[in-house]
Specification:
177 residues; alpha/beta; 4-stranded parallel sheet; globular
Length: 177
């Protein structure tokens, strides 16, 4: 005999409010989980020569992801509109001071294919001219230029690094939300 039938046979005058709700014994479906991200976010950092600022941004993002245990959570690349032949030594040095290594990187040419593949392009500084492409998010970071205030050399590059690093952290949060 079911529990419901047992209750009914014990007291035929039971009030309807005392009866179990029809279907209450059925299992309730769990709340649906949000769909997992189907594609790894990607970002392409761009400057003119791809030897300093864009390489710094890429190196800082990779470093921050690795430190957070999220290496590979964002596909990171960089390119230049008129790439130079090597990484700026001072840029590499100030990144190495905080544990980020870009010494083995090589400047690359910006292409529409690279922009489409990333889907999110960050142009660093006002000098790089980058055409918008349909389906590609394009943003520009006008970073502080310490040399405008007479600050040069190592100190200048540390300030540039720190400005870019703040922006990279904010971007990481937006990309990984």
């Amino acid at each position: 005999m079911t529990e419901r039938a047992a209750v009914n046979s014990q007291d035929a005058s039971t009030h309807p409010a005392d009866q179990p709700v029809r279907g209450a014994e059925e299992e309730i479906a769990p709340v649906a989980e949000p769909a997992p991200r189907t594609q790894t976010p990607a970002v392409l950092f761009v400057c003119v020569k791809n030897g300093g600022k864009s390489q710094m941004a890429a190196g800082l993002l990779r470093h921050d992801l690795a430190v957070a245990g999220a290496e590979g959570a964002v596909v990171v690349s960089s390119a230049g509109t008129q790439p130079g032949s090597k990484i700026n030594a001072l840029s590499a040095e100030v990144l190495q001071e905080i544990g980020a290594d870009i010494g083995g990187e090589t400047p690359a040419q910006l292409t529409p294919e690279a922009m489409r593949e990333a889907g999110h392009v960050v142009v660093i500084g006002a000098e790089a001219d980058v055409e918008e492409l349909d389906g590609v998010t394009l943003e520009r970071w006008e970073i502080d230029e310490p040399s405008d205030r007479g600050i040069e050399g190592h100190e200048r590059m540390e300030l540039v690094r720190d400005d870019i690093h703040l922006r990279v952290r904010e971007l990481r949060e937006r990309l990984l939300g």
